[in-house]
Prior knowledge:
Elements: H1 2-29, H2 33-44, H3 91-97, E1 101-105, H4 129-145, E2 149-154, H5 158-168, E3 173-174, H6 187-202, E4 210-215, H7 217-224, E5 233-236, E6 246-250, H8 252-257
Parallel strand pairs: 1-4, 2-3, 2-4
Antiparallel strand pairs: 1-5, 5-6
Amino acid sequence: MMTKRKLFIPIILILALFLVACTSTNKTSTPSTKENMEVSEMTTDVEPNQRPEVNDDPSAQIFNTAYENNQFITATTNELGNPEPTTPADLKERLAKGGLVIIHRYTGSGGSGGESIPGSIDDGQRISESSIEAMTQLGNVYKTLEAPVSSVWSSQYYFVYQHAVAAMGEPVMMNRDLTGSLNFSDTDELERSLQGLRNWTVTPPPAGENIVLFTHQGKFEKAYGYYLNAGQTIIFEPDTSGVPNVIASLSLEQWLDLAS
Length: 260
């Protein structure tokens, strides 16, 4: 009998220790209901604008126009003064220094295939092979001159966006202020957009940077009464006065010559 009792007592002790260990583990790994409520309350108390949000949609900036936007200076006129000034001798140096707003008009469509991107206007036109080559050369001027670019913006029309990407690479952001006027059915919206385009041209870029815009001849003509030819570049040097300051107006060939 003594032998059986001696064996029985250790077994009871082992079982007891096992139960105590299990209970302790459960208490450690599972928060109480009160703790769960406190965590939940902490999460819901965070203000929505404190939560980081990432939007990779290229259409996100489309309606962030320069009309009544306090980040932009308001253009005070719809006239360019002299839209074709004598090209400054130090234009290359100015491009490399930054502080310019550079507008390019696309060269042409005629290509085919490929899906458009979200937020773009797909009228069926696609950039042609010859335009891809021309835009590649256009973009190489920036590289050759080491001209700093803070951002590149394009019309919503997909084939114009294709020109911007072919020239400058990604990312390119689309913006309504650069979209062709034929896409506007609301005359008030069009007027706001034209004012927005003018505001782009009188607002200085970030210090030591250039801003590059790709738009349509018709949109620019409605904004400023000046027609841009295919591949033409017009360069502004904003001085915060609200008056557009054109320092150069170049054909595609003249622009490409800057790389030589």
